[in-house]
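Below is how a single chain appears once it has passed through the pipeline. First comes the sequence as given, then the structure the pipeline wrote out for it. We keep one example in the README because the format questions we get most often are answered faster by looking than by reading.
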Amino acid sequence: MNKPEIPMRLERDILGELEVPAAAYYGIHTMRALQNFTFSGIRLPVTFIRAFAQVKQACATANNDLGYLDAKRAAAIINACKELEDEKLSDHIVVDAFQGGAGTSTNMNVNEVIANRAEELLGGHRGEYAIVHPVHHVNMHQSTNDVYPTALKLAALKLLVELESEVAKFQEVLQTKEAELRNVVKVGRTELTDGVPMTLGMSFGAFADAVARDRWRIFKSRERIKKINLGGTAIGTGLGAPRDYVLKVVEYLRNICGLPLSRAENLVDATQNMDPLVEVSGMLKAYASNLMKISSDLRLLSSGPAAAIGEISLPPLQAGSSIMAGKINPVMAEASSQVALRVMGNDQIITLAAGMGQLELNHLLPLLAHSLLESLTLLINATRGMTEKCIPGITANTERCLAQVEQSNALATVLVPYLGYSRVEEIVAAAKKSGRTLREELIHQNIASEEKIASLLSPKRLVKLGFTPEEFEGINKA
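Resulting structure:
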């Protein structure tokens, strides 16, 4: 059965004529981009589209207030921008995330959607552009080269605010778990081998402090991208834009988005150099590194549980195998590790894309934008997953933790300052030869009592820094 034909309209540009779906708010420039860039099928994120809509609204408002755009057209454009911001027109932003032209296809897609909707609001028809033109009116006093990076920074700033909030919650649940597990004694390990006694609370406290540093980094990273090049037009000289517009348009955007944006002191620099975005990505990579470490440690600590470490149990989220009945996998930690790897890979892409920009413009900005916004979105979602579905449900296998302390030589290091390294080595060797635990060997040789050993392994003793001579009173050196 043949599919019904889609009604089309004819539009024209410098290259000739092209049919566009009659119901589409986009136009011929977008249609050419759809024909040229069929690489990924990845659409622009909603956050980026909403930021673009706010940039266009700011430009239209400034042009109207300064007398460059008449009130009727300005009102229609502003209303169309608000509809785009509210996601009512997002389905018409259809260009591929990977595109040539430094983002021109994205800018023209936005321009056409806003123009056609404004045209419609004023009684016209899509594709006519008799009242509102995508370039002459919607793109007035703008270039892709100033609106695209401005929209990118605006979207990144909003996502950074959201990420900081999620990281703060992550830090809080880790601190809660630290307090909850503060009395569970376990073996601390170095190079995956038994080390010294510690508490599970200490492990989660270390996680929390690492995440606290990330929270601060993410907060500070916002400072790096608050300066924008809006008003700089093609290369940052402001060519084609009136001076009063250049000086005021950022103020309009600041009022619309509610973020403390400011015009860059050197618009040429801000147009061609993307190192502030590299710096932000580097801070995201640092957080990804900590997220991976935490996820990896949780997998190890919960491994087994019968045949490995098994000190903690992670909350069961889904069946773990299609053949091994009853198996539960640490899926949230594993998914978070994959997110961390992706963010690290994106950081390398962002670094190279910024460094490969040439002369007055970075032609790789679409790739950089996709990578940065993807990293931010992935980290927000992975952090939320860890906060809501992993950390709160973790429980300690207290008896197993204590049994591993008993079976290991972790207690030996506690005794080294008092008995000496060689003497403790002898005790450890004797325990291995006899088949006794170190605790049993100490009692057998009358070196320490049950009560003294319990005192040395108490959570209160383990969490304090260093030792005092009084702690070893009652231990027999002979």
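The two ends are 96 Å apart (CA to CA).

See the next section for the split statistics.
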